[in-house]
Design goal:
It is built from four helices and twelve strands, in the order ααααββββββββββββ. By secondary structure, the chain is α+β, with helices and mostly antiparallel strands. It folds into two domains: 10-86, no CATH class; 97-228, Jelly Rolls, CATH 2.60.120. The strands form four sheets. A six-stranded antiparallel beta sheet has the order 3-4-5-11-7-10, covered by helices on one side. A two-stranded antiparallel sheet has the order 1-2. Strands 6-12 form a two-stranded antiparallel sheet. It binds zinc ion (ZN). It comes from Vibrio aerogenes CECT 7868.
Length: 230
């Protein structure tokens, strides 16, 4: 049974279905959809609604015959977004793995074509490893691996931070997050992500501005916060 409690907003899912998101956000959404049948269904519903709206807004009235043919096609085939990054997740037989800390983790299918743009792993303070994913946009995508018993200093965000849990779990002051959870944080949120002594965690994150550290000695890290934003 899935424990997913955090999902993208309906507005974001609708924009994904319409192919309106930037490539990096599309990857984050696609990777969440691999875990979440509830959001996959919503995306299919939005695609069908948008396709019907396109038909209704067609400049020339369609003949009865053509309308009948189009509605037959719509019943059979979900409409795919135009952007190749936004393609609905499909079943793949070939699986790729990400290796860190002598462990192998299944790479989200959404990142299959980006394998050559991942890494290498580098160390961050607090027993955390990070591997950058080059996506070409302004925002920064990273795999973050938190070993057992590790923590990131308390921080807030100058922009937004999306964290998608891929394996294991982590917690902060607000909740515990499990695989598939899509956690959106912004400058209203202050948190201290941690792992327990028994469980490590692999996440995919997307940041659109450097973090800002908020407590104790960690505030001394602020001049270096761009190292968390690469
Ligand atoms: Zn979902």
């Amino acid at each position: 049974m899935t424990k997913i409690q955090y999902h993208p907003t309906d507005d974001t899912l609708s924009r994904y279905a319409a192919g309106e998101l930037d490539p990096a956000s599309c990857i984050m959404l696609s990777a969440h959809l691999e875990f979440c049948s509830q959001c996959r269904q919503k995306v299919t519903d939005y695609e069908n609604i948008q396709a019907r709206q396109m038909m209704q807004n067609a400049p020339e009235p369609l003949s009865d015959e053509l309308t009948h043919m189009l509605s037959g096609i719509l019943k059979q085939t979900p409409v795919k977004p135009v952007d190749p990054e936004c393609q609905t997740v499909t079943a793949e037989t070939h699986t790729q793995f990400l290796k860190v800390n002598h462990k192998s983790f299944r790479l989200p299918r959404a990142l299959k074509r980006h394998e050559s743009h991942i890494g290498p792993w580098s160390r961050l303070p607090g027993n955390i490893k990070r591997a950058n994913v080059t996506t070409g946009g302004q925002s920064k995508m990273n795999f973050i691996y938190m070993d057992c018993n590790s923590s990131l200093p308390q921080h807030t965000h100058q922009g937004s931070e999306i964290t998608l849990v891929l394996a294991g779990e982590f917690h902060d002051e607000h909740a515990t997050y499990y695989p598939g959870d899509f956690v959106l944080q912004n400058d209203h949120h202050i948190h201290t992500p941690k792992t327990s002594a028994e469980q490590d965690c692999l996440c995919l994150t997307l940041l659109d501005a450097p973090l800002r550290f908020t407590s104790g000695l960690a505030t001394l890290l602020n001049p270096f916060s761009p190292i968390f934003f690469r």
